[in-house]
Amino acid sequence: MKVYKSVRSLTKKVFEIKKCNKAIGFVPTMGFLHDGHRSLIRKARQDTDCVIVSIFVNPVQFGPKEDFKKYPRGLKKDLEICKKEGVDIVFTPEPKDMYPESYATYINVERVTDMLCGESRPGHFRGVATVVTKFFNITMPDIAYFGQKDAQQAIVIKKIAEDLNMSVKIKVMPIVREKDGLAMSSRNIYLSKEGRIQAQSIYTSLKIAKELFNKGELDSRKIINRIKQAINKQPEARIDYIKVVDTKDLKDVKKISNEALVAMAVWIGETRLIDNIVLKTGS
Ligand code: AMP
After folding, report:
1. Over the stretch 266-278, which tens digit does the pLDDT of each residue have?
2. What values do phi and psi take at 215, rounded to 5?
3. Strand, helix or coil at 39?
4. 31: closest CA among 85, 86, 71, 89?
5. Which ligand 1 atom is at minimum distance from the Cα of 33?
6. Considering the entire predicted model, what is its pTM?
7. Same structural domain for residues 162 and 68?
8. Would the CB of 155 count as within 6 Å of ligand 1?
9. Do residues 108 and 243 both lie within one domain?
10. Which residue from 43, 146, 170, 271 has its CB within 8 A of the most atoms of ligand 1, so it is best to mutate?
């Protein structure tokens, strides 16, 4: 496994790999790796000849009042995990290499970024879209791997690849959860002991939604209300959004027909957590 810090040196290496006709699998991350990241890396390892993982806390996707500075970092352990998982290349650029002072180009994806996290975190997807596009240009992947945990992000990335005629294939992997159901996230470390217990209500409420749906409830408002009830029982919880939306364009769905995405963002104390579940008839 080799670690590349500079864009220039990795670009050179990628050209060599391409010349040998090797399939490149790319997994972009912000580090502080957990089993969710691991699942993407494992899939990339299965599918492709050369696995590249980026570890970069992208300043451009954080708002001025968000947690860029305190975002958890742990490169040593991350590198150990990558090595264990058989990663070929880890890319750990510095912000000044990705965004030199002269930097001026940003990717703006319309419509699918208007709602959900796009509404609560203005500029977030502009930062994500920009960094992922840059990474795609640097690593030239055949397949890139994303997690369903960030469902809106996966849709935004698919849109970029489609609209900008990129040849990369986007694969979205299922949400990996802790034993009690909490979706794994680098941010879970922010939770207090009590907050960690209250955070269980997020997945519990999504399971309630699924049960309701499976029993025949198709009215989004009723499903959302039941989720709200479960979350609001938690003293430290504050709902950012709970929405039932179309799985492709993320527009609000009033009455579910075949399938819908239930997506939510909840603050537990000072920690904002997201989660989602797909409701599908016959599943
Ligand atoms: P992050 O480091 O949080 O930016 O995440 C990097 C990639 O890992 C993104 O594509 C995420 O959607 C994915 N990911 C994060 N947490 C999970 C999880 N619990 N299960 C599956 N994928 C995840």
Report:
1. 999 999 999 999 9
2. -85, 0
3. helix
4. 71
5. 2
6. 0.98
7. yes
8. no
9. no
10. 146
